[in-house]
Design goal:
CATH class of the largest domain: Alpha Beta
Strand order of the largest sheet: 8-9-10-7-11-12-13
CATH topology of the largest domain: Dihydrodipicolinate Reductase, domain 2
Number of strands: 13
Structural class: alpha/beta
Largest sheet: 7 strands, mixed
Shape: globular
Number of domains: 2
CATH architecture of the largest domain: 2-Layer Sandwich
Radius of gyration: 21 Å
Order of helices and strands: EHEHEHEHEHEHEHHHEEEEEEHHHH
Amino acid sequence: MTQHHHPTRVAIVGAGNIAESSHMPAIQAQNGQATAVAVVDVDHRRAGDFAARWDIPAAYVELEQMLRVSRPDLVIVCTPPVAHREAIITCLDAGVSVWCEKPPTLSVAAYDAISAHEREGGPYVSYVFQHRFGSSARALREHIRTGTLGAPLVGICHTLWYRDAQYFAVPWRGKWDTEGGGPSMGHGIHQMDLMLSLMGEWTEVRADMGTLARDVETEDVSMAVVRFANGAMVSMVNSVLSPRETSYLRFDFPEATVELSHLYGYDNSHWTWTPAPHLPGATAADLGAPLDDEPSSHAAQLRALLQALRTGRRPEAGGPDGRRVLAFLAALYESAATGRPVTPDMLTPGNPFYHSMSGRPTNTRDNADKEQIGV
């Protein structure tokens, strides 16, 4: 007998571009398994217009009122990063699970403070890292787990994008207090999360960064050399100064090189599987490239998320699994600021970079709370 589920009731918080371009299409792609019941935005007119466009029954300016009246099962948080923490905690405390846009929070401290509001079996919070969810990434993760291509040896993780001065004219962008960091935090985080979700635990990062061409408080370029527990070494570059944009990941194994070259999303055609010289003529399929072709997308991640929530499991890209990339970013920023290598065990509450990516106290409510120690 097939189990019949009522559609998951979903609410959107923040009626901006990402909700419009990515999240509503993702909800509609769930074959009736999800339905949008409410939208919240500080701008009442914007909320109303969004609701009308997408045929959503209710629009609100207040999150608490929406939770009380519309009673969603899942809230998708699409606000600027500085507002993530408060919205997530409000939902979790109301017993509602959350899916939040990247970057998860502005600091590791804030991430850990939010985690204290989760409960075993739910509600849970997970974060938007849609590049993990394409079929090729899934296949490669399984190969690394089982060792079919040999242990990974060398990796490259490049996010070479272009953002002009006008992009940074938006008041909250390019500032430590409101965006948490620069392109490493806001742009490269997607490729970095994919690299880390495949390679597993990192053990050391040596990094440098610069502000070369944009009028921002944060970096506009960062570079890092990363060591992993599995022995691999990875080179990372993040830039928003690169006119020919590309997102490029490369993994070198004893048996093959696997590469992903795309911009903001991929399908199997963006991946290249090259056999080692001792395996002449081996095809991508021989090396274990997947036959099914699910592109990376918000829809793919939402499908996995809904499945997890229905069974009371913690979704991927939450908990320790969602924290990994944020801790890595804190280490990258600390290494770039101090000129020293950073290891995971250094990111404790006594470390200023645990509390903010700049290593300086911030003025935002995101960090300035009584749970802080050591700042």
